[in-house]
Design brief:
The chain has 338 residues and is α/β, with parallel strands linked by helices. Helices cover 27% and strands 22% of the residues.
């Protein structure tokens, strides 16, 4: 175990890749940023953990699933993850990749929004976004796959502690991060493309609010890296950046200034302090205090898994699915919960 090390949020500012041939230059740039960060901070401390934002390799810029598949989808692992693996082995570091638009021959009708945790040993875990930003995001959730064979929220034991990850909209579901925390995670990475007005600026500040809240309510470190692209590159959205590292009490240890652009944020992650606090605390220990039987909403119907051919994976199809879920909620409320 490495009881004290530094993590880095590496905020990127690429334009949208139009096809998969443009992904390689983005990968090369991210690898250079890792090496520059390691070299630049070497006189002060060792940076061992790196995180990149959602859509760092490619964003779902096409409105049709078949176009996304033809232009931008890749299998994972791929040549880019191999490049990160070589770098991780060279420097003994761990890399949470920016997301890929992933295709998998086991589910040829679907695409996923996917990131990998890569260490000196190679790929340690693959995470597919469980809560896509519907109705705009057409990629599937593994929740949509019958008998999905892998953990929805993998947590990996590493020399840097037990690491978990969730992507962007996942973090607006407290249950998602709580699931990762109950699986033992000590550091949870957030890869985001979190646009205005829900970013770092008043009066919303969802980005800051959610990152700090998830950290303190689960007694975890949060390494949250946000997209730094400009409006001209990702219309109609602008991205406020503000990448940050938050400790287990919700304190911001380091944060990039709001605004677009490439930025690197580093901060210490003290595993020994976290573990001692988890052992010592009797008050404010929300994991130990969790009264599971008090909450019956887990048994209620929610958004059902998506089924059907690729034709159903559209803005219109997802909108109808949301409306059906909302109708169930309103019906339950109207009948007093029966």
């Amino acid at each position: 175990m490495t009881p004290l090390y530094y993590g880095a949020c590496i905020q990127t500012a690429f334009g949208c890749a139009a096809d998969r041939s443009q992904i390689a230059e983005r990968t090369s740039r991210m690898c250079r940023l890792i090496e520059e960060t390691i070299a630049g901070y070497e006189p002060f401390f060792d940076v061992r953990l790196f995180a990149f934002p959602e859509f760092a390799h490619a964003a779902p810029i096409y409105p049709k699933l078949k176009t996304l598949r033809r232009k931008l989808a890749l299998p994972v692992p791929n040549e880019h993850t191999e490049q990160y693996a070589r770098l991780a082995k060279k420097y003994g570091c761990y890399i949470q990749t920016g997301t890929f638009i992933e295709e998998d021959p086991r589910w040829p009708e679907l695409l996923f929004n996917t990131t990998c945790l890569i260490g000196p040993e190679g790929i340690l875990a693959k995470y597919r976004k469980v809560n896509p930003w519907i109705p705009w995001e057409l990629m599937a959730s593994p929740h949509d796959v019958p008998n999905y064979p892998d953990p929805l929220f993998p947590v990996v034991e590493t020399p840097l502690g037990r690491l978990g990850v969730a992507i962007c909209y996942d973090w607006l579901f407290p249950e998602a991060i709580r699931q990762i925390a109950f699986a033992g995670a000590e550091v949870v990475l957030r890869l985001s493309a979190y646009m205005d007005p829900w970013g770092t600026a008043s009066p919303m500040e969802w980005w800051t609010l959610v990152n700090r809240t998830r950290a303190l309510e689960n007694t975890i470190y949060v390494v949250a890296v946000n997209q730094g692209a400009e409006l001209k590159d990702y219309p109609p959205f602008s991205w406020p950046g503000g990448s940050m590292i938050v400790d287990y009490d919700g304190r911001i240890l380091a944060q990039a200034d709001p605004g677009p652009g490439e930025k690197i944020v580093v901060a210490p992650i003290d595993l020994e302090a976290l573990r001692q606090e988890r052992k010592r605390r009797l008050g404010h220990d929300t994991l130990a205090h969790f009264r599971r039987e008090a909450y019956d909403y887990f048994a209620l119907p929610g958004l059902p898994p998506q089924t059907g051919s690729s034709e159903t994976w559209s803005y219109q199809g997802l909108t109808e699915r949301i409306r059906q879920a909302k109708a169930q909620l309103f019906k339950r409320w109207a009948t007093g919960g029966e």
